Amino acid sequence: MDVSKTDKPSVLAIIPARGGSKGVKLKNLRTIGGISLVGRAILAARSATTVSEVVVSTDHEQIKAEALAYGATVISRPADIAGDTASSEAVLLDVLSKVSDTPDITLFIQCTSPLIDPADLDAAVGAVRDGEAEVSFAAVPDHGFHWTADPQGLALASGHDAANRPRRQDREARWLETGAFYAMQTAGFQAAKHRFFGRVRICEVAAEHGMDIDTEADLALAQLRVPQHSEPILVDAVVTDFDGVHTPDTAYVDEHGTETVRVSRSDGMGVARLRAAGVKFLILSKERNPVVAARAAKLNVEVAHGIDNKAEYLARWLVDESINPARVAYVGNDINDLAPMELVGWPITVADASDEVHRAARHRLTRSGGNGAVRELAELVLAARSNPQV
């Protein structure tokens, strides 16, 4: 079947999650930021716009219960492919043999990657759907100098000339497979019985998303690096600052003194999805530059800019809109956001916010301003609305 000619191909996300794990006992149930590894994988898959269904293959009752709680379908894994030696391909093929309708695209997701951006899943699926490749997988760029060793233990340069030490920016990138996800044309995968076949395309993901959990040390490091998030962000409205949230905390100024800013298309999609779900959205900014209103118009959301007292404006807006402040998220990055953050139930900061503002936050995003922070929040809010029991 030519997936590229299908208007909306069916996409089945398969998440293998067995109970046995020697490196980390019951690894798939261990939590990072208050969410289990299997839960994180399911939330990422369900937040991807291209995914039709999410299936977890497991041999463990607790993992089954966890998967069902997060809204996945569960398929029991046979004992003969539940051990250490069973391949991931065997698990995928088992699931595909049991589903009622064979999907056009199979999206293989691994729980050991705790940070998966749904937009990256969509990009990988899109490459297969649009006929650019039969397989697309997650990888991070690697500009390092690699070495191997000979039988005597002496170092050998691998992939570079040891006598030539170009600057990092002058070195050709290699790519490190993260193992987070693989999008595959299903028919081709079933024929090859291996995840790499046909034309293979790299789906570049952020370096911080290359994290992989194999040991207790990996888990401990991830628990330090990933923001704590022990409860769903159940809100009816999202209010954001503009500079430093929708944009990096910078501006471009030309020779005429005209300022321009950079925004994230991914954020735009996140805002659109929130609006479609009925979540009110307000951009509240002290900035007087008309670019704020222009961006709000592009997003088709309400905006108030040139506001010196943001807390006063927000308090009045909440009354006018009859919104419970406890069910409002405010996203900020600097000290002028502290007062409005105190008015809402969900004060939230972007990853590169100032330390003082971070300390006032109930949740810290992993993305910085202008680099997908608003999209990240949108996915968390949408996930909470679709899984209110989580």
Structural features:
seven-stranded mixed sheet; 12 helices; 22% strand
Structural notes for this entry:
This protein is about 30% helix and about 20% strand. It has a seven-stranded mixed beta sheet with strand order 5-4-1-6-10-7-11, with helices on both faces. The model has no long low-confidence stretch (mean pLDDT about 90). It is built from twelve helices and 19 strands. The radius of gyration is 23 Å and the shape is globular. It has about 400 residues and is of the alpha/beta class. Helix 1 packs across helix 12 (about 375-385) and helix 7 packs parallel to helix 12 (about 375-385). The protein has helices at about 35-45, 60-70, 90-100, 120-130, 185-190, 215-225, 265-275, 290-300, 310-320, 340, 355-360, 375-385, and strands at about 10-15, 30, 35, 55-60, 75, 105-110, 135-140, 145-150, 155-160, 175-185, 200-205, 235-240, 250-255, 260, 280-285, 300-305, 330, 345-350, 365. The longest helix is centred in the last third of the chain and has 14 residues, at about 375-385.
Quick structural overview:
This protein is 29% helix and 22% strand. It has 390 residues and is of the alpha/beta class.
